[in-house]
User: Fold this.
Amino acid sequence: MEKTLILYPAFAMMFLTWFLYFKNHSDNRKAAKNKSIKFSYFKAYQGEVPDYVTVSRQTLKNQFELPIFFYFLISVILAFDKVSQLDLILAWIFVVSRYLHCYIRLSSNYVPYRAKVFKLGMLVLIVWWSIFIYNII
Assistant:
């Protein structure tokens, strides 16, 4: 199996993060343009802002929480030259869970659905890390 295939899920996560940067920037500009946000908000990200700005910012911040474990595991798997078919499957399941999480958060933001998708991604990472650690030991 070509070990670089594991990079495709990482690229997909990167594209999601870039999309969220652009969305966040666009939402901030929109709020500033219609004067529903004060520029002082950006000093410490405190103050009154429309919900869509907060949701956009939080969605972007989420990409630097749980996905960090994903990126690190991919790096370690590549360093150990241990890429397997199961790694690819688990990586893509995680990526799909993150896309779904973002979609839910940016659309309905229905917390019970969002929580289930988040838990799926977290479970995938726990299982994936456990398998990797077991195989290394």
In short: The longest helix spans residues 7-33.
